[in-house]
C-alpha cells in the first residue's frame, strides 16, 4: 500500500487550492462554460439562426461569428438601415447574400409578431428556424426604485418579457412540427442577482429565466432546447470608451463566442462575467444569506455611483460612496 507523506499531501492541497483560486479569480465564466473550449461547428453550419437585436452590440457580433461558422442568418431589430449595414459586413458560407433582414418591433403586439414568425419560417421553408437567439432588450439608465415611472416599467417589460415570450409562443409550434429547435436567451447577471439601480430590468430578466427554464422542462422531450445566458458587464459599441476605466468588462467578442459555445454544447444556463460580479453570482446562488447581505451593502452606493457616472461594478461600492469619475 502506498502511504503519502502528510507534508506532501498538505503541499499538494495548498497547490490545488491556489491553482483553483487563481482560475476562479481570472475566470470570465462559470466553471462548466470554462471547461468547453470550442464551439461545435457542426451544430451551426447550414443551420438557420434567427437573432433579434442584431443591429448593434452583442447581437451584431453574434451575427458576425455565426455567419463565419456557416449559419444561415435572419437578423432582426427595429432599424432596417442598421440591419442592412450589419448584413454587408457579414462573411461566411451563406453571407452576406443569403442573410435575411427582418425588421420587427418586439413591443408591437401578437399580430405583428405572428407575421414576423411566418416570414422567418418562409425564408427557409425546408428547415425552418433551428435557433432563435433572443438577444434584443430594452434597458434604461440606472435609477433608484423610487424613481421608476409607469412608462419606464412598461417600456422595459413590453420588449423584454411579453414581446420575447409571444415570439417564442408563436415560433415554438413550428419547431415542434420539425421535432427540434433551440432558444438561446440573452438574460443577464441581473436575472440572477439583485441589480440596484436597475430593479425593473432585473425583474424582466428574472422573468425570462423563469419562463425559459419552465418551457424547457415542458418541451425538452419534444426536441426543444433552451440555453439561458447570463452576462455581467460586457464591453459593447454602446459603452466602449465612454465608461469608467476601472470597470472590467468582458468584450462582446468573447461574450458572443462563449454564447455560441454554450448553445452548441447544449448547456442549460451559463454565466459570463469577470470578477467581482461572478463571485457575487456564485454567492447569491449557493450562499444566498451571504450574497444578499453583500448586495445590501452595495445597493445604495451603486445607485449614487450611477447618478455620479462612477463605476457601478467596483469593489469599492462595498465600502462607501464611489466618487464621480
Ligand atoms: N451590454 C451588457 O453589458 C449586457 C450585460 C448583460 C446582459 N446583456 C443583454 O445582452 C443583450 C444585448 O445587449 P447589448 O448591450 O448588445 O444591447 P444594445 O446594444 O442596447 O442593443 C439592443 C438591440 O436590441 C434591439 N431592440 C431594442 N428594442 C427593440 C424592440 N422593441 N424590438 C426589437 N429589437 C429591439 C436594438 O435595435 P433597434 O433599436 O434598432 O430596435 C439593438 O439591436 C440584451 O438582452 C442585454 O440585456 C447585456
Automatic annotation (TrEMBL):
Xref: SUPFAM superfamilies: NAD(P)-binding Rossmann-fold domains (SSF51735)
Entry coiled-coil feature ranges: none
GO cellular component: membrane
Entry-linked InterPro entries: KR_dom, NAD(P)-bd_dom_sf, Sc_DH/Rdtase_CS, SDR_fam
Any Pfam family the entry gives: adh_short
Chain ranges of the Ketoreductase domain: 47-237
Name listed for the protein in its UniProt record: Ketoreductase domain-containing protein
